[in-house]
Design goal:
Organism: Agathobaculum hominis
Keywords: Signal
CATH class of the largest domain: Alpha Beta
Distance between the termini: 44 Å
Strand content: 5-15%
Number of domains: 2
Protein name: Extracellular solute-binding protein
Radius of gyration: 23 Å
InterPro entries: Bact_solute-bd_prot1 (IPR050490), SBP (IPR006059)
Length: 445
Amino acid sequence: MKKRFLPLLLSAVLLLALSGCGEDTLLEKNDPVTIDFWHVYGEQSGSPMDALVQEFNSTIGQDTGVRVRVSNLSSAAEIGGFLKEAQNGGDLLNMPDLFTCHLADAAALGEENLVDWRDWFTEEELSDFVPGFLEDGTSADGRLLLFPISKSTQLFMCNGTGFDRFSEACGVKYEDLATWDGFYDAAARFHDWSGGRTFCALDYPIRAVELRAMECGSGNFYTENGWYDPNNAVFKESWMQFARALAQGHVVVSDLYSNTQVMTGEVLSGLGSSAAILYYNDTVTYRDGTQEPMDLHVRPMPRTAGRDALMTQAGVGLGACRTTDQKAEAAALFVRWLTEPERNLDFVAQTGYMPVRIGAFDDIENYDGFPEPAESYRQLYAALKTMREDYTPVSEPRFADYYSKVSVLYDGLRQMQQELPRRAASGEDVDALAEETWALLCSIR
């Protein structure tokens, strides 16, 4: 992450602009306030967010009397539960001042308990952010509960060296993976050609199923209790396409993050968050100890042929507990600094996310600060650019406890996928096996 050394005179001007409060500030340099921060950036390895926190604390934070302290790292799927536990007085957790989470998790904490960022940012400031990203963190009554600092979507990432061998033998090209039908056909052909290996591990299969169903005209397939309508035929057929492939071992639900399975050669490819690029190595190390170059290839999310393409608009936002105005001002100062255009571009380019400011996406085309291997990041942002231009973004579900239900579903599928391919290979009907996975989905309440 690039460091910025500002002249003292310009630094003073910047401090005044960042605070947005002038002489009315509640911050005191000689009596600093500490902001406890929970985030999801970097659970698997060293965190670019932690580096930014250190930079803030040693510069603007030091000069204004604000110290940000990272007190917990989690995953996006788990952090909502941790926040609720802390709010309820859990023995091991204290409620943070600032945190990343999804809107449903924020709403579960009680909107009245959270800072409305519109109280701390002017409309002129907010007009510089992508409207859809702001809407993704806005409650039904218009309160901006989660401030966008980055957004992700789902992409296809592949061991290019292994795919070249498959392509040469079977004639499958990357272009064939552009549609869901082509993707699942390639998965079946790879399984047959490789002697039973799995083509792809999916990190968020339910979202892939949802997007295909919506592209096919499913309409609303959610129930009032925040799950899926078992009577929606289009949604079920979308699920069954995935489930048939799962039952035969063509695809799997990832152990947690598909990049690990790609890097060990367990699968050829992964379908997951654009941010997963942060965790890919430049080599594949097979379980027998042999290695080969990864030559990572990144492609857009498959889409339904002949239909308007949809993409998930994912990623957490920054929420803050409503305690004192001093802490709210301190949190707003950090958020304003964090989303400064050049700094935000640096952050997303290092982590595989999309920038949140209008026009910043175009600046990535000429960006020269990608980490190595830079070609993989260039491919990633080329794929994201294609999706930004050709796909319509769709926000993720906002139901309370939705992600905990999804976690139960994935755990169940991971258990089933250990046995289903063997049963399919022994002659059991694939559709019947796929129906077992549908029954699992319908059983979750």
